[in-house]
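Many introductory courses stop at the sequence. We go one step further.
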Amino acid sequence: MKADHSSVAQQASAPLEVVSLVSLGRHPVSGRLRRAEQDARALELCLALERQSAPGAVSLSAWHASGSKIAPGSEQDQALRGYLGMGLESLTLVTPDSLQAEPLTAVDPQAAAADQPVIDVWPLLVTRLKQAAPQLVVCGGQSETGEGSGLLPHLLAESLGWPLVEGIVAIESCDGAHLTALQALPRGQRRRLRVKLPALVSVDAAAPAARQSAFAQARRGELAAVASGELAHDAVAETFAIAPARKRPKRLKRIKATSARDRFKAAAAKAEGGSGKRLEGVSAEEGAAEILKLLREEGVLR
């Protein structure tokens, strides 16, 4: 009985292992590599959880999966150091067990156009997560480079058998067995969830903005490579035809709620606008004409 009590006390005193998955982002105007916006917000939530917890209660680490070697001083190295500048001492590079003699640079499906292999990194993350066994994994909802499909959290959760919670904007508390977080809902609403650990959560774009990256801390930080699993090629992505994205029509009446007051106004607002027109008993031609008129007024059609 004494041994059981001591084991329980040891588990209770063990720090909460939290992993923040980060990726390479791309600036929408210049096209240069940078820290990804949503992944930086995810790391900011982890840092806030560490700050509000007792000293030593949370053990935080950041991981970046890469199928290629990242040379010091390269553009990839500079972009990843943006995360180190947020207050991390080191960042773990999850790499394959054996890299080819010539370092692979095809970490993006766009490289398929150059007849280079496309590397699938999620099996590396699954292997590493099974080895490290953290209680909580936090990541962004969608990457800025590569396919940008947003499927990585789903693939990881399915492979690990963990619950997945999407659209998180705040982590309120974590007692080692359960996580309490706020989830973003349409029209600026929020929902409080209690999730059993281990779990994987993805962060919404409405989460608090990430802090500025300190240059000195980014230079002092270390990028440490850890071998994890075999190299996996994405044969399906190699067949993709990559083309520049076209500008999409803007969305109608998009609500951008940044404060609690704005979220309350959006949630309490009526679904129909005051300037709308209700059409009853009109012909198809008259209805189509009104729809075209609305689309032109909103700037969707020019």
